[in-house]
TrEMBL record:
<comment type="similarity">
    <text>Belongs to the short-chain dehydrogenases/reductases (SDR) family.</text>
</comment>
<dbReference type="GO" id="GO:0047560">
    <property type="term" value="F:3-dehydrosphinganine reductase activity"/>
</dbReference>
<dbReference type="InterPro" id="IPR045022">
    <property type="entry name" value="KDSR-like"/>
</dbReference>
<dbReference type="GO" id="GO:0005789">
    <property type="term" value="C:endoplasmic reticulum membrane"/>
</dbReference>
<keyword id="KW-0812">Transmembrane</keyword>
<keyword id="KW-0175">Coiled coil</keyword>
<dbReference type="GO" id="GO:0030148">
    <property type="term" value="P:sphingolipid biosynthetic process"/>
</dbReference>
<comment type="pathway">
    <text>Sphingolipid metabolism.</text>
</comment>
<keyword id="KW-0560">Oxidoreductase</keyword>
<feature type="coiled-coil region">
    <location>
        <begin position="41"/>
        <end position="90"/>
    </location>
</feature>
<keyword id="KW-0443">Lipid metabolism</keyword>
<dbReference type="Pfam" id="PF00106">
    <property type="entry name" value="adh_short"/>
</dbReference>
<feature type="transmembrane region" description="Helical">
    <location>
        <begin position="237"/>
        <end position="260"/>
    </location>
</feature>
<dbReference type="GO" id="GO:0006666">
    <property type="term" value="P:3-keto-sphinganine metabolic process"/>
</dbReference>
<keyword id="KW-0256">Endoplasmic reticulum</keyword>
<dbReference type="InterPro" id="IPR002347">
    <property type="entry name" value="SDR_fam"/>
</dbReference>
<keyword id="KW-0521">NADP</keyword>
Amino acid sequence: LISPKPLALPGAHVVVTGGSSGIGKCIAIECYKQGAFITLVARNEDKLLQAKKEIEKHSINDKQVVLCISVDVSQDYNQVENVIKQAQEKLGPVDMLVNCAGMSVAGKFEDLEVSTFERLMNLNYLGSVYPSRAVITTMKERRVGRIVFVSSQAGQLGLFGFTAYSSSKFALRGLAEALQMEVKPYNVYVTVAYPPDTDTPGFAEENKTKPLETRLISETTSICKPEQVAKQIVKDAIVVTMGLFRTIALFYLGSFDSIIRRCMMQKARSETADKTA
Ligand SMILES: NC(=O)C1=CN([C@@H]2O[C@H](COP(=O)(O)OP(=O)(O)OC[C@H]3O[C@@H](n4cnc5c(N)ncnc54)[C@H](OP(=O)(O)O)[C@@H]3O)[C@@H](O)[C@H]2O)C=CC1
Ligand SMILES: CCCCCCCCCCCCCCCC(=O)[C@@H](N)CO
């Protein structure tokens, strides 16, 4: 229930998937401005290099590095694991992972291809599972780490036109909450961001196929700037606080956390007993 010590970004290694565009790029800039070393992960190498140049304009010392690695985070776990290994060899263990690679395709349920459901689940959900799975062991061992999942307002509310997208973003919440319960005793903290519509290349792409109903719903709220959204996401990841729905679940989570601590202590005791036997 106690908030952790804020993560110190100066000198920290931050990996941002989807860091070559939109919200992810702005998250990378925000962390770089605060002294972090950055690994950008995305597919297109030209876009990665462009983003690297743009981020480097914001350096605050001459030691800072922006590393780019091209990989599809949605395809194969071993590829993603290798990329994380490469990043760790160059810039040290990952202090913070931001899972921002993702996309949206809007359309009525019967108009969406079945393959779109597969693609969005692979990218938005599994594309966040793989990098997280690749960093978690080291984070637990070091007792240091932050993992950020970028969901969406459409990851809290199922909305017209978002049957494929919303479900893939809802999945992140389940993943994040279950994972948080596992890793809290190791001082690793998991946050989920639920951004509204944000002015990015991805949003422009989404608008090309948006049904009228989805557009009208979207127009009831204003469009955010990616810099502003990124700032909030980074702040929430560094200074972990509790949202309203978590406060309601406080009692339950508190008692579950004590079960987990008890198991951890029991395991430690039986290991010492084994050693001394
Ligand atoms: N913009 C918005 O309105 C909102 C966006 N979000 C979420 O925020 C995240 C970022 O969105 P936004 O900034 O708009 O997106 P952009 O389309 O602008 O950027 C997406 C980034 O993800 C990378 N990416 C896409 N597919 C893959 C893949 N298979 N493997 C690795 N990298 C990949 C892209 O690079 P490349 O194509 O080269 O691989 C790019 O760097 C997404 O998860 C989105 O769902 C949430 C709420 C609102
Ligand atoms: C408690 C929850 C608050 C709910 C507020 C209701 C807002 C309704 C309008 C939301 C418009 C759709 C957002 C999708 C953003 C997105 O992820 C895509 N643009 C990605 O490209």
